[in-house]
What does this fold into?
Amino acid sequence: MPQGNTFPWLAVPAGSIEVQSGYTTAGHHVVPTPWIGYLKTHGLYITISTPRGTHAAVEIARSLHTGRK
It folds into this structure.
């Protein structure tokens, strides 16, 4: 099944980013997961993972969208 027809891609409009975080377990400890951004741009489905928060995920997405480094 193509990524565009599955969650979370189905809910993300082209040219937009959805940013979320959550928790996972490491051994017997619950730890925060990195911020994850889901981006659809130029026919690509991109997952951005960063421990630096929402702002970093959005900046990464913007740089991918505009082609700047």
In short: The CA atoms of residues 19 and 55 lie 10 Å apart. The beta strands are 17-20, 23-26, 29-32, 35-41, 44-50. Residues 35-69 form one domain.
